[in-house]
Amino acid sequence: MIILDRESAKPLYLQIYQHIRDEIITGELEEGRRLSATRRQADNLGVSRNTVEQAYLQLCSEGYLENRRGSGYYVKHVDMSLLDSDTVSRKLQAFHRERPENRKFLYDMKYGNCHTENFPARKWRRAMEAALTEAVYGKLGVYGDNCGDWELRSYLADYLDRARGVKCSPDQLVIGSGTQQLAGILCQLIRPERCAIEEPGYDGVRHVLENHRIETAPIPVGAGGIDLAALRREKAQAVYVTPSHQFPLGEVMPIQNRMELLQLAEEQDFYVIEDDYDSIFRYTAKAVPSLQSLDRKGRVAYLGSVSKALAPSLRLAYMVLPPELKNRYDMWFSEYHNTVPSLMQDTLRIFMAEGSWEQHVRKICLANKRKHDLFAAKLERGLGPGFQVRGKGAGLHLIIESDHLTTEEMIVKCQQQGVNVYSMEKYFAMGSSRNLIMAGFGGIGAARIEDAADRILRALKTDD
Amino acid sequence: MIILDRESAKPLYLQIYQHIRDEIITGELEEGRRLSATRRQADNLGVSRNTVEQAYLQLCSEGYLENRRGSGYYVKHVDMSLLDSDTVSRKLQAFHRERPENRKFLYDMKYGNCHTENFPARKWRRAMEAALTEAVYGKLGVYGDNCGDWELRSYLADYLDRARGVKCSPDQLVIGSGTQQLAGILCQLIRPERCAIEEPGYDGVRHVLENHRIETAPIPVGAGGIDLAALRREKAQAVYVTPSHQFPLGEVMPIQNRMELLQLAEEQDFYVIEDDYDSIFRYTAKAVPSLQSLDRKGRVAYLGSVSKALAPSLRLAYMVLPPELKNRYDMWFSEYHNTVPSLMQDTLRIFMAEGSWEQHVRKICLANKRKHDLFAAKLERGLGPGFQVRGKGAGLHLIIESDHLTTEEMIVKCQQQGVNVYSMEKYFAMGSSRNLIMAGFGGIGAARIEDAADRILRALKTDD
DNA sequence: GGGTATTTGTCCGTATGTATG
DNA sequence: TCATACATACGGACAAATACC
Asked: Which nucleotides in chain D lie closer than 7 A to a protein CB?
C-alpha cells in the first residue's frame, strides 16, 4: 500500500514512482504483473489520474514498466544481479518464502482420507446448484440461525433417530464445521477442569481440550472400550469416548459397559461426550445403538459428522446437546454466528430431502465393506506369524502390529514400496512401546486396494 | 431406531410392529412418509425380511400403513383425537416442537445484512463450478492445510498489502470461518487473563472472550478511538480494537493514536487484535492504512473477512499472525483441521485469480456509498433538531440519537412503520443511558433506501 | 461469433505556485 | 515589479482493447 505524505517537499508523483520502483527492485512486484489502473490507483491514493500517470510514465521511460493501451501497465524484467544492497536481500527473504512441498507417495493411507470415486458428484452438484439459486434470492445476505438451518436439523434429527437411535428434537441439534469445532464449544459449555479421554484415543480432540487448558486424564482402553474402573477413580468432570468403534483400536463398547458408564456419569455428575465418528461403517454385525439413546438423565452430548460418509472437506458436523447444555448454549452463544456456510447447509438439506443421503450412506458402506474385506483378507493371509491385523470388522482403517519390526522400520519399508502408512504414536498421550502402524483404506480406490496390500506385504516380508 | 430384545418372550415381529405403531401414534412418523424397505430394515435389525414384512403387513391390516407395489410402505392418516394417553402427549411435545417463527418486517435494518443485488452471482457460480470440478479430481477427499489453501493465502497476502498496507507472507495467514472463530483461536494463542475491549464495541468478540473465561476490561471510546490513557492504566495482556472504523460508533483512530497504541503495546508487552471488519467502506477520505502496517515489533494480529464485501453466509475470514503467535499456532494447532470447506476456499481463490475480487470490492463500495449518501442525506434533512445522525462517511450503518425519545420508543415507532431498527444496548458492556438506534442499510436494496428512510422519518416525527 | 458495455491508456487543456531574468 | 518558463496537480474527452452476453 502506497502511503503519500502531502506535507513533504517531495512531489506526489515522485513518491508514487519511488515506491513502485522499490517494489520492483525488491521483487515484491514480479515480472509480468499488471499494476493497478491509473484511475483506480488515483482513487485509492486520493490524487488525480494524471499524477499517477506521470509516475507510471516515468517508470516506463526508465524501463521498469511497459504500457499496453487498453490493457494496463505491466512490470518488465529487471536484471537485479547488478544491485545487491542489504535492503533488497532482506525484503526478498521476507516476501518470497516458497510454497511448502510435501512428498508424494503412490498410495497415501492417511486416516480420514476418502476416495472421490465414491462421492455422489452429480447429485451433490445438482443439490448445490439448487441451493445457490435459492440462496441468491435471500439468505445469502444474512447470518443464519446460530444453531444451523432449522430444516437441516430437522432432517438430521430424523435420520439420527432411525439410524442411531438418537432421540432428539431439532432444537437440541447444533451444526458446526467439524468435530473439533464442536468439541471446542462443548469445552466452553461444560467447563470441566479435568476431562477423561481414551488412551489411545483421537488426538484431534485431545488437542482441543489442551488448548482450552483442560487437564486430560488418559484412561486405558480394553476389549470393552474405556476402562470403567479406572474412569471411576479419575473423578473427572467429563469424558470423551468413541463407544461405537473406539478410535483407533476399533473396540465396540458392549451394552453392559454403556449402562455402567451412564450410571457412573450420574453418580459422579459428569458429562459424556460421545463421538460417533465412524458408526455407519459396520461390516459384520448390525449397528449398535448410540450411548445417547440409552441416556435418560441428559448426561450425553452426541457428536457426528458427514466427513467420513461424504467427504472430509465439506466441513459439516453436528452435535446433540442434552437440555441443560442446550440452555447454556442459548445463553452463552446466542450472539455467535454459525460457522458453516449456508450454502453447505442448504446443499446437504436438499440432498437429504430427496433421499440421496441415506441412499449414499448405504452405498458407501457397502463399497467400504468390500474394500475392507479385500484389504483385511490380503493382509491376514499374506503376513507371517510375526504380525497381527487389528481393528477388523468396522471403520476405514486397519492396524498392523509386529512383534519384531519397530514402527519406524515398518513405515520406512512401506514407504519404499510407495505406500505411506502412519505411526500411531500421536494417539497415545502417554506413549507406547507397541509396534503399530495404521493403514487407512478410505482414500484408496477400490481397484487399487489389492495393489496397496501387496506392496505392504512385500515391504514387511522382506528379510534384511 | 428400533432396538430388539432377542431374550424377550415377545416375538420379534411384534416388537417391530409395536415400535412403528407407537411412532405413528405419537406423530414421530408423519403421514405420507415412506418406511424403510423391508430388505434394508431387515439388514439394519439383523432379522429376516419376512419378520419385517410380517410386522408391516400387520400395520397395513390395522390401517396404519398402505403398501404400494414396487414403491414401498407409506404411513396413512391416523385420527389421533381418539387416543390421548400421557405418553402420547409427552412424546408429541418432545418431538414436534414447532419451528421458531420470527416476525417479518418490510425492511430489516439489522447490521451485517447484505443485499444480494450486489452479489456477483454469475461469476461466483462459475468459480464455484470450476472449484467443484477440480475438487472431484482430488482434494475433496482429504483434509487440507490447517492454515487454509496456500494459493488462496498467497492471493490474500497480496491483496492485503495493496489495499490495507498489511505486510505479511502467506505463511502468516490463517483462513477461518468467521471473525469469532479466529478470535477464539487468538484467545488460545495469546491466553490473556484480561483483555481490554472497546466500550461500546463488538459484542460478538466480547462473548468469545467471556466464553474463554478471559476477563474483559471495557475502555471508553472517544473521538480518536479507544481511550489510550485508560488503556494504559488497565494493564491488560491483550486489547481488541477496530481502528479503521470503530464499531459501532464509527470513529477513525488517527495516526498519532495508532503509534501511541503500538508504543504502549511494546511497553506493557501486550498483543493488539486489530479487527479490520469494515475497512473497504470508506466514502469520504481515502483508506487509512492498517495498524498492522505500522507494527514493527510483531504485536498486532490482524483480522478480516469477506462477509461484508461478498456475503456473510460464505463464512470466510482470515487473520495475519505475528511470527511469535504463528509459531505457537504451528505448535498447538498442527493437528487441527481447517474449518472452511475447501470448496469455499477454492471458489474464492478462483474468484480472486481472475481479478473479480478487487473489481467487486470497488463496485460494492460505490454501491454502498450511493446508498449511504442517500440515506444520510434523507435522515439529516428530515429529522428535526431533537435528533442527531452519527457514524457518517463510512461503513454500512448509521446511528440516530434522540434527546427526547427513548431507544425503546424509537424502535417501536419504526417497527410500526414496517422498519426494524435495532437497539445498541448489547454493544455496551456496562450499559448506557443514551437514546440510540442503529439502522444498517447493507441489507436494503438501492431502490428501497429512500422508502426506508421516509418510513423512519414518519415514525420518529409523529407526535403523540 | 458478433454486437455492446466497460475498462484502459492517451491526449488535451487548465490552474496554481515557484523560480528566473 | 513584472513577465516568463517550468514543475506540479487536476479533470475531461477520446480511442483502443477487453470482457460479457
From this structure: 7-12, 15-18, 20-21
